[in-house]
Amino acid sequence: MKLIKHLYLTDRVFYCLGAAVFLCFMSFLFHPMFYGAMGLLGLCVLAILVDIVILFRKQNVEAVRETQPVFSLGDPNKVAINLRNNTDRALRIKIIDEIPYQFEERDFSMTIPIGKLKNEIVSYHMTPTIRGEYSFGNIQLFIQTGIGFAMKRETTQASRSVVVYPSVIQMKQQELAALKHPSFTQGDKTNKKRGRSYEFDQIKNYIEGDDTRSINWKATSSQNKLMVNHYEDERSQQVYSIIDKSRVMRMPFKGLTWWITRSIPL
Predict the structure, then answer these.
(1) For residue range 208-247, what is the model confidence (pLDDT) as tens digits?
(2) Which residues are CB-contacts of 148 (< 8 A; sequence separation ≥ 6)?
């Protein structure tokens, strides 16, 4: 039962069977072609049996998928599959990776040759457009030998989930740009210097250390003592970030959407 479940016949088998049927029809006109048809049919069966014996002796290929635990929204994220050929024969492998349904790809596959006792790395990039949790399934391998009359399916359990956050790659790039800012390269020592602003606050009595250029002579003459203009100190202003999470903002923009398909921990 396991053999039937994992065994697949290639196109070469059906080409041989079609050629054998054609020779059978032609044997009505040329009788010796019947023996050629029987010989071709026997060779086809023999090739299938040899392929089955080679493929089903043991597990032929090991596969491991490598992904980042967090994908960046709108950026190409690399997915790599490491393959190991455990046989002493060159193989041809068709890889069907069960990618998350959010990508809406139903015919995603790759075919590569791999030498005997060799390692190969196959990589591709996925660009998510929706935030949320993405679930990868198993890795399906369809393996052929050089004979190419039969294929064996080997399934590697590789289920894994990754979360998609807004552009982690771009945030890292901005972090590097911020580290190059002069404020990060001048050290922690600060130089205090007296500054002057032009936002008038009040008139007050002169005290030692006040800037003599701020003396208000009219107020001094009326009060009969030194009076100076006092100005407000310049300081940083508070900045408020307002994020609109209404239904309008859930509409896709340039193929991307901020709508979360499933709640994930932040």
Answers:
(1) 888 888 888 888 888 888 888 887 766 666 778 887 777 7
(2) 10, 12, 51, 92
Q: Which residues pair with 113 in a beta bridge?
A: 92
Determine contact, residues 127/76, Cβ cutoff 8 Å.
Answer: yes
Say if 146 falls within a structural domain. Answer: yes
The domain spanning residue 124 has which CATH number?
2.60.40.10
Mean pLDDT score of the chain: 82
Beta bridge partners of 63: 83
Please name the amino acid found at residue 184.
F
**Which runs of E-coded beta strand occur in the chain?**
7-9, 61-66, 70-72, 77-85, 91-97, 110-114, 119-126, 130-136, 139-144, 150-156, 160-165, 200-205, 227-231, 257-260
User: pTM for this one?
Assistant: 0.65
3-class DSSP assignment, residue 260: strand
Which H or E run includes 174? helix 168-179
Q: Give me the half-sphere count of Cα atoms (radius 13 Å) on the Cβ side of residue 211.
A: 9
**pLDDT tens for each residue of 119-142:** 999 999 998 888 888 999 999 999
pLDDT in tens, 22-37: 999 988 888 888 999 9
Cβ–Cβ under 8 Å, residues 7 and 150: yes
- Establish if 254 belongs to a structural domain: no
Domain count, the chain: 2
**Per-residue pLDDT reduced to its tens digit, 232-242:** 766 666 778 88
Residue 203 lies inside a defined structural domain of this protein = no
What's residue 180's pLDDT? Answer: 63
CA nearest to 60, candidates 148, 137, 121, 151: 151
Neighbours of 48 (CB within 10 A): 19
Task: Assess whether 133 and 41 both reside in one domain.
Answer: no
Q: Which domain holds residue 113?
A: 61-168
